[in-house]
């Protein structure tokens, strides 16, 4: 709703920021549900072990898309 209000007011940067935030949260939720993770600490530990290195950019949509196996649909 807030992103739509920003978009209607032609406040594009704010609208894109909120939309990106919503997408990021949705992807993290999907990953956490898929792998039975209940806290963000568990999520962080899971990704660090899967990537075999500490993750520095927790906001990377590309990283999150890779974990949901949704990247092929995104690139179509």
Beta-strand percentage range: under 5%
Identify low-pLDDT runs. Answer: none
Spell the H/E element sequence: HHHHH
Global mean pLDDT: 82
Largest sheet: none
Distance between the termini: 28 Å
Assign the structural class, choosing from mainly alpha, mainly beta, alpha/beta, alpha+beta, or little secondary structure: mainly alpha
Helix content class: over 70%
Give the total of beta strands: 0
From the alpha-carbon coordinates, what is the Rg to the nearest angstrom?
A: 14 Å
Shape, principal axes of CA atoms: elongated
Give the count of helical stretches: 5
Describe the protein in words.
The protein has 76 residues and is mostly helical. Helix content is 72%, strand content 0%. Helix 1 runs antiparallel to helix 2 (12-34) and helix 2 runs parallel beside helix 4 (61-68). It is elongated and about 45 Å long. The relative contact order is 0.11.
Overview features:
76 residues; mainly alpha
Could you outline the blueprint of secondary structure elements for this entry?
Elements: H1 2-8, H2 12-34, H3 40-51, H4 61-68, H5 71-75
Helix pairs in contact: 1-2, 2-4
Can you give me a brief rundown of this structure?
By secondary structure, the protein is mainly alpha-helical. The chain is built from five helices and no strands. The protein has helices at residues 2-8, 12-34, 40-51, 61-68, 71-75.
